[in-house]
Design brief:
Layout lengths: L6 E7 L6 H11 L8 E7 L6 H11 L3 E6 L5 H11 L4 E4 L11 H9 L4 E9 L4 H17 L12 E4 H7 L9 H8 L4 E8 L11 H14 L3 H30 L7 H33 L6 E5 L10 E2 L2 H7 L1
Parallel strand pairs: 1-2, 1-4, 2-3, 5-7
Antiparallel strand pairs: 3-8, 4-6, 5-6, 8-9
Helix pairs in contact: 5-8, 9-10
């Protein structure tokens, strides 16, 4: 039976050397009332090129609750969260970023709600002090498009700062898709028994945000394509529209011919028609290509990541672990 006593805190970190120590100090202060045996803190080093790993190792030597999942390269934020989740041992798993924009002081509130009986505790960011106008607009557009095209509702202003109970964690561990978006995956699960805590995100403690226009654009494409086939249906509609337009143009040309109207060269019409049809074909092929590309990556069945698992009792790199079907079988 779910005891709701042991909590894992998963913290992905990519080049966050200026934040790790401050985050750890604030987190340990917030968790001072909890027995050390009831908490584990898992830092996931997502291929950092600065001193992030070294700082995590220093903290680990001082605190046996701290574990490290050291990814061999930068696999991305979603995969880093997955790796931390895979190695977690808690009945509940808290996900939070390493930039201190997810206030550690809220962690006890997440635990309290979970221990009160909720299977998941989400957060709602009502304001972000460090968010630029461009990021706000891009985020709003992304969530509007995702809600329009996706079969699973992906809520806005709901960051990765959350606690997920064992009931849902066990299901998430069985989901093996390469292109992962936790928000969409949780929406697909259809969370029913959950609570929401509102908070205001402060500015980053140190460093720069890892999200730029390219990463936001890719996130938007993934969010739509991963959870919906609506774009393929839209491609069909575009093709039907182009075919109907071509029939109308053909009918108009025949009407001009038989009514004896003054002949025109039609050069501009031909060029515009060719450009239009070519653009339609490229759009449709692009949409189909997005899905085929994902099928291509999925059927390879490569592991999601390669990582070393470090604890205070094992400071030497352990044999590399990777998420694969055999690990799923081992977990049962």
């Amino acid at each position: 039976m779910d005891s709701r006593q042991y909590v894992s805190i998963v913290i992905p970190a990519f080049n966050e050397e200026g934040n790790i120590k401050v985050l750890y100090e604030r987190l340990t202060q917030a968790l001072a009332a909890y027995p050390p045996a009831s908490i584990e803190i898992i830092f996931v080093n997502d291929g950092s090129t600065d001193a992030t790993l070294q700082q995590c190792q220093t903290i680990m030597q001082q605190d046996a609750r701290v574990k490290i999942v050291d990814l061999e390269r930068n696999f991305g934020h979603e995969i880093a969260m997955t790796a931390g989740m895979d190695y977690s041992q808690g009945e509940g798993v808290i996900f939070m970023d390493a930039d201190c924009q997810h206030p550690p002081e809220l962690v006890p509130k997440l635990i309290e709600k979970w221990q009160a009986g909720f299977d998941a505790v989400l957060t709602n960011r009502i304001n972000n002090s460090g968010e630029s106008l461009f990021y706000r607009l891009a985020s709003a557009c992304y969530h509007k498009l995702a809600s329009l095209f996706s079969a699973s509702h992906i809520p806005s202003k709901t960051p990765d700062f959350r606690l997920i109970g064992k009931k849902y964690i066990n299901i998430l561990k069985k989901m093996d898709e390469k292109e992962r978006i936790f928000r969409g995956m949780l929406s697909w699960l259809g969370l029913s028994n959950y609570a929401v805590i509102e908070f205001t995100a402060p500015k980053r403690q140190s460093g720069q945000s890892k999200y730029n226009f390219k990463s936001l654009f890719n996130l938007g494409i993934n969010g739509i394509v991963q959870f919906s086939t609506v774009p393929l249906r839209i491609a069909t509609y575009i093709g039907l529209f182009a075919a109907a337009l071509s029939l109308l143009l053909g009918a108009y040309t025949l009407w001009e011919y038989f009514t004896g109207n003054t002949a025109r060269t039609g050069y501009a019409t031909i060029i515009l028609t060719i450009i239009f049809i070519g653009a339609v074909q490229l759009i449709v092929l692009g949409i189909i290509g997005e899905y085929i590309g994902r099928i291509h990556m999925e059927v390879k069945k490569r592991p999601l990541y390669v990582a070393d698992y470090l604890t205070q009792a094992n400071t030497e790199p352990a044999p590399s672990h990777a998420r694969s079907e055999s690990i799923h079988c081992h977990r049962g």
